[in-house]
Every structure is written in C-alpha cells, then in structure tokens.
Amino acid sequence: MFQKILIANRGEIAVRIIRACREMGIKTVAVYSEADREALHAQLADEAICIGPASSLESYLNMEQILSATIATKADAIHPGFGFLSENSKFAQMCQKCNITFIGPSAEMMERMGNKSEARKTMMAAKVPVVPGTKEPVYDAEEGKKIADEMGYPVMIKASSGGGGKGMRICERAEEFCENFCTAQMESVRAFNDNTMYIEKYIAHPRHIEFQILADKFGNVVQLGERDCSIQRHHQKVLEESPSCALSEELRKNMGDAAVHAAKAAGYENAGTVEFLLDETGNFYFIEMNTRIQVEHPVTEMVSGIDMIKEQIRIAAGYPLDKKQEDIKLQGHAIECRINAEDPKRNFMPCPGVIEELHLPGGFGVRVDTAVYQGYEIPPFYDSMIAKVIVHDKDRASAINKMRSALGELILEGVVTNIDFQYEILNNKDFQEGKTSTDFIPEHFPVEG
Ligand code: ADP
After folding, report:
1. Is 274 near ligand 1, meaning CB less than 6 Å away?
2. Would you state the pLDDT for residue 164?
3. What is the predicted pLDDT for the residue at 165?
4. What's the maximum distance between 2 C-alpha atoms anywhere in the chain?
C-alpha cells in the first residue's frame, strides 16, 4: 500500500481524500495556491506545499510544480480529485514517467474515453447504444450543417473535449446551425484548445442517469447502481439522487449491464461513471464516460456503504476488488444538494465573499462534505461549490423530508448562496412526484434558468 499520497486538488474533495487516507494509515500532502493559504485542506494534511499564485493555471494546473512537490515530499501517489488535472492524460503520463502512481485510469484509457467523439466510437463498436449522431469528428460548420440537415433538427452540437457544459449548443433550426456551431467551437478552443466537434440528435426532456463503476487491474468490473442527475442548470448538476424513480427493475438491470459492458469494452480501470440519457419512452443512450471520481459520489456511498475514495486507492495500489456484483447491496434513498456561492436570481452568477456565520446541519443520515468554516473567505478564483449536503433515508419521500430539514438548519451568512433555491426544488410538487427531466429548472424557474 502507498505510504504517502499527494492530493492535487483543493476544497471539499481534497478534505474528503485526506480523511480517507488518514483512516487507511496513509500520510498526506496538500498543495495550495497563494489564495488558499488559509484553506482547510492545507491545514488538515500532514504536510502542505504552496505551488504558486492564485490562478489555477499557475497552481492547481501546474503539472511541473505538482510533480516537484510530490518528489520533494517523497509521496508515492497522486490523487487528482475531480476537475483540474483529473482527466489530463498528459499529466497521468508524466506521473508514470516519474514513477509516481496516478490514482485513476491509465493515460491511454483517459485519452480513449476522455475524448467524447472517440468514446462514442468505442461504445458503438461495443454495441452500447449511443445518442444518434456523427461517427467521425466535425471541424467545419458547413460540413456539420449538411449532417444536421440529414439528421433533422433539433440537434446538439458538442465539443469532443467538452466538460462542465462548455462547448455545447442546442440548435433548433437549420438557419441557426452555422452560428451555433462556430460559437460552440470557439468556446471549445478557448477552454480546451481543441476545435474537434461532433453532432448528436437532441433528446427531448431526457433524464440524466449515470452508473458508478469500479474496475480493478484484473478485469473485474462492478456497478454500484445509478444516480439520477436530471436537476441541472446550464447543463450542470445541482441535485443528485440514488436510486432514480424513473427506472423499473428491468431497465435498471439493462442499463447497469450496459455500463459494465461499456467499462469492460474499454478495458477500464479504477472508478468511473458511465453517463446515459434516458428518453421519455424508456430508450437510453450513452453520452460520455467520466474517468475520475465525481462530485456526486457520496450519493452512491450512502446507498452502497462503499467508500469510493478508499476503493480508488486500493485499486491503484494493485488490490483486486473485494466484492462481486452479487455482494453489492443498495439500500434506501440518498440525495445530494450542491451548495454554491452563487445567485440563482442573477443567472447563477458566482458570489464569493467572507462566511460570517456558519452552522452546519447534522443528525442521523445527514452528511456534509465541505472545506469552509466560519470566517473563511471564499476566493473568487475557483468553482463556486462550497459544500455538499447529503442525506440518506429509507425511501425517496423520507430522504426529501430529511433534506428539507437539513437545509432548514443550514446557516451560511455573509455570501449569497443557492440554499433557498435548493429548498424550493425540494418543495416543488413535480419534483416530489418524481416528474423531472433535465428541463426541470428552466421550466419551473424560468427567471433563474
Ligand atoms: P459535459 O461533459 O459538458 O457535462 P454531457 O455530454 O455530459 O456534457 O452533457 C451534459 C448535459 O447536457 C446532459 O446531462 C444533458 O442534460 C444535456 N445533453 C447532452 N447531450 C444531450 C442531447 N443529445 N440531447 C439532450 N440533452 C443533452
């Protein structure tokens, strides 16, 4: 097993990983930017190293600095968390060259699945249903338009390197195609330095259903059930739950089998998520595979009782999975609400600032993953998510009630947050009845969405 792990991340996920390491008897090294001197992760780890200025490019994305910190502290592995370098195959390759274990899949695998149009090809070859659309990459708007005209509108224009909703545009009509294509492509070039695009049929009112996968170095793959992440703003998740109330046992089994098959076909290793869209008639389509731990992993931890971070570390250290599919028992219902320092009334604009007062909820089945504390100043340089409240109860209705109670108890003064917005979602009748799709927020909160 590893002696010491460097965590190449910040915020609640860095804290989450430090905790798992400590419980496993593994020493930890935190890295922090100059803006994060007072951050909790830097204080909780056994060692902490400043890796550069506030800008992510010069700190949390600075591969050379992070590798130097790893070598200087004699850490034998790096956990990348999510975001930042977690899906960067070049970084995984550099780790390998330096004889440092990257806790995640191999660089080749990341390349294969991280490139979304490549991943579509791999899935098509494995006969996993994908959203109807292009097989080869598209670089040119006119060429794209011809394909879209044939497919029929509306279509979704997407960046191969896309993530976090960036480089993605819905196109309703042929007349809008070229403009939308160019905007999406420009966004992709700016964010990912890549002009490779692909086109998918637009699925109306879908649900976003994803399956959590664990795969070891010996070809064993298990799935830990689904998460329903249909509650989204700007194509980004806001509230996630498991199980999904939209799946029959038969559909759950079919989708779970497809997810395992997808991971096996790709030769996948470590924790990963296979994402699908489920249409209104019960057809499901692969959209992408995330080759890392995800923000919403606690939802799966609560229903499965399996610590995903520890599993990631064990797999990377070469241990086989200690559970077979039939040993995995999912119990009750879990919900996660992302707490963001943002203003839902102003198009979810980030609102950093100082947390003047803080009271976190607790109690049976309530979990809070966060790195903020009273008096903490949320820096303006990073993601606006500051906490995750997760609840677990015997069924969906009880979990909703528990979350309403927990959010009612949560006090976070000094900055604008989406706590009330989350509360409104939980109080919404359609949400309570499970009548949701990825259009839920734009439909029910048109001003905000
Ligand atoms: P990203 O990697 O940027 O998160 P995804 O491909 O995972 O992008 O899609 C994010 C969200 O965008 C989905 O959960 C869904 O809400 C919406 N979406 C993506 N593709 C389609 C599609 N073909 N039709 C309808 N909605 C889509």
Report:
1. no
2. 83
3. 86
4. 60
Distance in angstroms (rounded) separating the CA atoms of residues 390 and 392: 7
Residue 222: what pLDDT? 98
What is the per-residue pLDDT for 449?
42
**Residue 200 near ligand 1, beta carbon < 6 Å:** yes
Give the angle 85-234-12 at the CA atoms, nearest 5°: 40
Asked if residue 79 has pLDDT above 70, the reply is: yes
Please compute the mean of the pLDDT values over residues 12-34 and round it to a whole number: 98
Q: Ligand 1 pocket: which of 235, 274, 283, 294 to mutate (most atoms <8 Å of CB)?
A: 235
Tokens of 447: 């001003």
What are the φ and ψ backbone dihedral angles of 379, each rounded to 5 degrees?
-70, 150
The pLDDT of residue 244 is above 70? yes
Q: Which of 130, 157, 168 to mutate to test the pocket of ligand 1 (most atoms within 8 A of CB)?
A: 168
Which protein residue has the closest C-alpha to ligand 1 atom 18?
Answer: 235
CA 267, CA 261: separation in Å to the nearest integer? Answer: 10
Q: Report the Cα 118 to chain-centroid distance in Å.
A: 20
State pLDDT tens for residues 401-420.
999 999 999 999 999 999 99
> Stretch 221-250: mean pLDDT, rounded?
97
- The answer to whether the CB of 209 is under 6 A from ligand 1 is no
What Rg, from alpha-carbon coordinates, does the chain have? 21
Peptide bond into 243 cis (omega under 30): yes
Query: What residues act catalytically?
Result: 292
Count of CB atoms situated within 10 Å of the CB of 86: 24
For the whole model, what pTM was predicted?
0.96
Considering the chain, what is the average pLDDT of its residues?
96
Residue ID of nearest Cα to ligand 1 atom 23: 202
Calpha distance 159→146 (Å, rounded)? 18
Distant-in-sequence, close-in-space partners of 268: CB < 8 Å, separation ≥ 6: 105, 109, 113, 213, 215, 221, 262, 289, 291
Structure confidence at residue 448 (pLDDT) = 43
Cα atoms in the 13 Å half-sphere on the side-chain side of 283: 11
